[in-house]
Specification:
Helix content: under 10%
Largest sheet: 14 strands, antiparallel, barrel
């Protein structure tokens, strides 16, 4: 039941598209796959993934900050985005391999449009909606050791950059309406390690990969309606991109057919963002709200739970040059209620991938995926503070029946 490389290579396009469509769960974007490093001999690949989410909700009609408007729609707050991945794997000795992987692991691209309800947009001064834009880049350098043809032990370093900006607008933001923060790009390093087992005779391949958290210190320019916000001394904003574990498994199930599983855990529960001046202003706000009983403030963004996700699929080779796959995916989300900057709660997806091999040593693969995004309640950071009635007041809108489309294109070359 030996499976040809044509089919094996095709399977790797779908997890990347899944990560794009499930982007709404926290900021997980690329899925951080290392599967290209497990290819035989020398290998190069590059791909582009495009996501087109549609995420909108209804402002709660009983909110005291709601202006006299019959329009309760938030509008579509999720922007379309694209990102790129590339990987190079070299077998530099019979038992030693080397790899470079470039990806954009975490990101956010949200922008609420102007609406007459003024809840999450400012129609009076800035004429802008609440928005967030986060970009990251990773370069992973791996070394692998194969003590036996069936085993591969690998580890390496990761160089990561992060930058972003956020704007808070609307009556629901209270004293934070008009707040802007721009985070200068910061670079830092982490590491990864894993092991893999394979049996080519039955197309079996299994791998487990751990990636460490990476700590950043970002310089932030914080303003309110364009005026510098200087409530406390200047200091950097500390954030830590999350640790994660990827499990990849595939096996032949009958002639020219493979079943595959990709599972991922991301430690979003420990991720927080609290810029210095924002934190100082939030402490003043909570002190007043609680009449001095709670002075701890709150975060600009955080998550209640870790994210779990999985993709299960089947691939089949139809001819010497054509193969295809189909799969089902699931995402747990990171808790509900969720942040106003990311008002989703996981969901389910289905996808289809097709690959064409013009020659035995290279291929072109494409895929498409539809994702049903889970319903969520959008809340701000005050949801978590220990003040009576704060959680109810922090809930702004209900987001239901949303979806996303993902598209991917990949080229691969073996040499």
């Amino acid at each position: 039941m030996k499976i040809k490389p044509l089919l094996l290579g095709m399977l790797y396009i779908m997890p990347a598209i899944y990560s794009a469509t499930s982007h709404a769960s926290a900021m997980d974007q690329s899925g951080q796959s290392i599967l290209a490093f497990l290819e035989d001999k020398n290998y190069f690949e590059a791909n582009i993934t495009v996501a087109d989410p549609d995420v909108s909700g209804k402002v709660r009609s009983n909110r005291p900050d709601l202006v006299n408007s019959t329009d309760l729609n938030t509008g579509d707050m999720a922007e379309s985005f694209q990102y790129y991945n590339a990987a190079l794997k070299l077998q530099i000795a019979p038992q030693v391999s080397f790899g470079l992987i470039y990806d954009q692991p975490f990101g956010a691209d949200a922008a609420y449009p102007l609406r007459s309800n003024n809840t999450l947009s400012d129609n009076e001064i800035t004429m802008q909606g609440t928005s967030a834009d986060v970009d990251s880049q990773n370069i992973s350098m791996l070394f692998g050791f194969q003590p036996h043809p069936s085993f591969n032990l690998y580890a390496g370093g990761v160089y990561q950059t992060v930058k972003g900006k956020v704007s808070l607008r609307g009556n629901s933001m209270s004293i934070f309406n008009g707040y802007d923060a721009s985070f200068k790009e910061d670079s830092s390093v982490g590491w990864l390690a894993g092991m893999a087992f394979q049996s080519p005779e039955i197309a079996l391949k299994a791998a487990a990969t751990y990636r460490s958290e990476i700590k950043h210190q970002l310089n932030a320019n914080e303003t309110i309606f364009g005026q510098p916000l200087e409530l406390t001394g200047l200091s950097t904003t500390d954030i830590t991109t999350p640790q994660s574990v990827n499990i990849d498994f595939q096996t032949g199930i009958f002639k020219d057919t493979i079943a595959y599983l990709n599972a991922r855990w991301v430690n979003w529960k420990d991720f927080t963002i609290r810029p210095t001046q924002f934190g100082a202003l939030s402490e003043l706000a909570t002190t007043e709200m609680s009449q001095g009983t709670y002075t701890g403030g709150f975060n600009l963004d955080d998550h209640q739970k870790d994210q779990w996700s999985a993709t299960l699929g089947i691939g089949h080779q139809f001819t010497a040059k054509w193969s295809a796959s189909t799969d089902v995916s699931w995402d747990s989300g990171t808790g509900n209620p969720s942040s106003v900057l990311n008002p989703t709660e996981g969901g389910w997806g289905v996808g289809l991938g097709i690959q064409y091999n013009p020659a035995p040593n290279y291929f072109i693969a494409g895929g498409i995926k539809y994702f049903w995004i889970g319903d969520a309640v959008a809340q701000d950071g005050t949801y978590h503070i220990p003040v009576a009635g704060a959680a109810e007041m922090a809930e702004h809108a209900d987001f239901n029946k949303n979806n996303a489309m993902g598209y991917g294109l990949k080229i691969g070359y073996r040499f």
